[in-house]
Design a protein that fits this description.
- The chain has 131 residues and is an alpha+beta fold.
- 38% of the residues lie in helices and 10% in strands.
- The protein contains four helices and two strands.
- Strand 1 and strand 2 form a beta hairpin.
- Helix 2 packs across helix 3.
Length: 131
Amino acid sequence: MRFEVFTGAGRRRDWPPEVKASILAESFAGQETVCSVARRHGMSPSQLFTWRRQLRKQMESQSVAVPAFVPAIVDAVVADEPAPAIQRPKRRRRSKASAVELEIDGVAVKISRGADAGVIAAVIEALRATR
């Protein structure tokens, strides 16, 4: 493993061709995002995007086919089968004035700031007794 420590203002690095080719290959592999490849190698994502653009132009100038888009494969939806419904979890509204909210066996108790401790204990005991 190699570590590079940069101190002060940034400097230009001269990437050996084999290292540059390896980084470019990683960025085109599709295993991770271009940005994560760039960051892992300690470079700016914009620099790696520039390298990729330059490689595409070079390949086009040599009449090598460069795919612009990856083909998408779409499965046909069978008309007899309805699409599964997406159910979102229900959100409960919470009072901003309450400091504590308890839910015991479907009964919600909201205790606001400054509530009397004796009253709170009595409510909890009453809920326990109903179980």
